[in-house]
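Forwarding these from the shared drive since the link keeps breaking.
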Amino acid sequence: MNDADVSKQILQMVRFIHQEAEEKAGEISVSAEEEFNIEKLQLVEAEKKKIRLEYERKEKQVDVRKKIEYSMQLNASRIKVLQAQDDLVNQMKEDAMKELLNISSNHHEYRKLLEGLVVQCLLRLKEPAVLLRCRKEDHHNVERVLDSAKSEYASKAEVHEPEILVDHSVYLPPSPSHHDDDKHGLFCHGGVVLASRDGKIVFENTVDARLEVVFRKKLPEIRKLLVAA
């Protein structure tokens, strides 16, 4: 083999090596680009997921905040409604109290009321001897109805007439004036309080107590009417 053939073979080998190197480099480049694209896609997707989760978190926070604000506004509205209802009920009670100022002006009707209140107390206590307290201004009216009240009780309970001692040492508070602005002072619109002689059993049957009982019983009905209105 002469020098020309040797050179030719060397050139062919060099071209083959170059070609193989270029093909290998192309494969490496394609593979690297594919890996880069895959990694880039993964990073993009991961970032998208992160952004989406952050958005969902903030959206939930906004939703929770809106619900809290709505609940607070709803509670505030309910409190206002309940306060308005309470104000109306208290006003009704005050108006009724003012009407009670005139209850003792009709002496005949008031004596009948006192008699009925005394009988109720006796039926509740069922004691042979009781202590009675009333307003100082009602003393004479009470004395006038005691006999008939004892007789009515004895007939209803089928017992002997009880002994009723009117307490002159301690009276119930007086009636408030039409112009009395002190709502916290002690006052009584009428009626009686009876107790057993030992003081262990007490039954308050004043006009004020009766009104309180009526209001407590009627309060659910009153509130329903106020809600319906």
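-- next protein --
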Amino acid sequence: MNGTDHISLYLSIVDTEKYCLGWEVYATFKLFVFDQIRDKFLTIQDAEGMIRRFHDIKMEWGFDKFLPLDSFNFLPNGYLVNDCCVFGAEVFVHERSAKRDYLSMIKEPSNRIMTWKIENFSTQQDKAPIYSRIYVVGDLKWKLLVYPKGIYEGANKAISVFLYSVDCVTPDLKIFAEFKLRIRDQIDNKHAEEKTKYWFSAAFSDWGFSQLLLREDLERACKGFLVEDTLIVEAEIMVMSTSSSRYLSRNCTWED
């Protein structure tokens, strides 16, 4: 992955469902491949043993170019013997006493589905983006953003849809949301829908999908996404929380 002609090797944290919302694990680690001929390890680690932060959005760290394939496949190197190889990791988990986020989590908040009916959609193709009105979910305010001609990877080929946090205006406020974005199929209910989760902040106040719906599907009447020049966009928040900073030794526990 991102390492042409190389083996890519990563350390990934698992069983994170048992951790509380906002969990973080700080670790240093080494990754290795075993030389089965000389009984020794080729070991790779970050420069100066850098501490890596594993969390809900970033659950793996490692090396895109761990080992060139020609070195791995060269039998005298001892990495591949009888079509068998041995990889491993040495991990050190660090305790942290620092400023942490105290989280207040809300599941299935009130008014969690935001429905935006965009009429005369064809007349708004040159606007980028189109903003919805403000929706109040629980006690937080949100908007929906639509790029009719797409943005980023979806430019000129897809409809891009994002959820925008109105409340994230100060640097110390962060808002977590697990949510779905969808464009409704108004005929067969076969909606274009994706699910994601994100920490919103003043610096990063929107998140979504640059290719939620391809324009070729939008323009096919039988698909039911655009009916009488009306597009229906929805966001549904399943979980959300706000954070405030406190000094804690640790507000989550985990097993090493």
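The longest strand covers residues 230-248. The CA atoms of residues 36 and 84 lie 10 Å apart.

- D.
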